[in-house]
Amino acid sequence: MTGAHNPQKSFGSWVFIAMRWLAALAVLVLLLHFFPLAPLRSALAHVPLTRFLAILLLYLLGHAAGIAKWRMVVNAAGAELSAAASTQCYAGGLFGTLFLPSIIGGDVVRLAVGLRPSPRPAAVLVEKLANDFSM
Prior knowledge:
Blueprint: H1 7-34, H2 37-45, H3 49-76, H4 83-99, H5 104-115, H6 121-133
Helix pairs in contact: 3-4, 4-5, 5-6
């Protein structure tokens, strides 16, 4: 029997999720331990709250526009990705671009994440190739 009725698979996926959260918390604890917080607090105290919130809102709106654009382009190729899947693809690609050791890293992550949920994975691949050759 496969799927959600398999208790071992469900337990294993929960353990994996818990391990990911624990790793993220460990990284945050290490950052807070080694990062000097006094200069950060001092610098943030000089920024008005309204300016900080306005810049944060613009930053998040910029990413929302990027997600919408990527979803529109990939769905125009016939990928039929949901908003949640498009957000995962965009965020994965952004992470890959920022942290993987080459510019192709983000594209590979975005492609890998997009192929799984799409009923037409070839459309995700075609969008990626068309995007590369149109530049």
